[in-house]
Amino acid sequence: MNQQIFLKELSDKKIKMFVKREDQIHPFVSGNKFRKLKYNLTHAKLQGKKTLLTFGGAFSNHILATAVAGKKEGFKTIGIIRGDELGKNLEKTLEQNSTLRQASENGMHFEFVSREQYRQKEDQDLIKRLKKYYGDFYLVPEGGTNELAIKGCEEILTDEDEQFDYICSCVGTGGTISGLIKSAKEHQTVLGFPALKGDFLQGEIEGFVTERDNWKLITKYHFGGYGKFSEELIHFINQFKEQTQIPLDPIYTGKMLFGIIDMIKQDKFPQGSNILVIHTGGLQGIEGFNERLRKKGSDLKIHI
Ligand SMILES: *Cc1c(COP(=O)(O)O)cnc(C)c1O
């Protein structure tokens, strides 16, 4: 569903903005993660696989999505989680971490590995060892991005979205935006807002979307890197929620909307532009984020 939002910053510049509520596909799983898993799960079934195995951090939207979608489709799921300290007292970890708790409640089995081991996630030796231990599985890469994931994300845009001049999306691994780029029309420009630092994304996306040049990455709104934030960002997220009733997460969608509004103020979009913003979800992460703020003794809090 596309929801129009009304803000003074927009009417001042005669700009129309709609938010595609992919966050509402599921009550707590990121919409884009379901899109990315859809054809992977079909493929896994065709191959006769009974188990899905994937990788992620302790607050990963992708881990939770794999647990929930896997359960729904009748797969066993295994999550290889970064941080071996989390495995020392699983009960306590699950008590304190709502992402892992919900994944566990959906039947996911965890293996906690050190950061060093985690870095070998694409190493064939590691995959072999895991297969020896767990038996055969369908491997979903970290973040869920592969060709089948991109195919799923090509279904985000529909015919009624042809009216828009700009399509804006958050970028993590680049899978979601690659699907958008491939399905966008000739007259549309896709703008990606990376949630992390690093120049590798440009090349990564180019590799997925060969031949299309209707897109651009806006790289100055990562707030210091993945999971990093500022007080200004938290205030922005709370204010945006108050003004539009739309909740944003601090890792992805909050940074993107902050960037878009900032660019509008700076006249980076022509007057009269019609902008579609993809809300990819990520709202399940807010609870864990607030918990971390509380532990640090901060007064900041994202209002859910
Ligand atoms: C994973 C995620 C993204 C990033 O998607 P990629 O396909 O990895 O670029 C964006 N927003 C949310 C809420 C996510 O969970």
From TrEMBL:
Gene3D superfamilies: 3.40.50.1100. Its cofactor is pyridoxal 5'-phosphate. Keywords: Pyridoxal phosphate. Belongs to the ACC deaminase/D-cysteine desulfhydrase family. SUPFAM superfamilies: Tryptophan synthase beta subunit-like PLP-dependent enzymes (SSF53686). It comes from Pseudotenacibaculum haliotis. Pfam families: PALP. It comes from the Bacteria. This is 1-aminocyclopropane-1-carboxylate deaminase/D-cysteine desulfhydrase. Residues 9-281 form the Tryptophan synthase beta chain-like PALP domain.
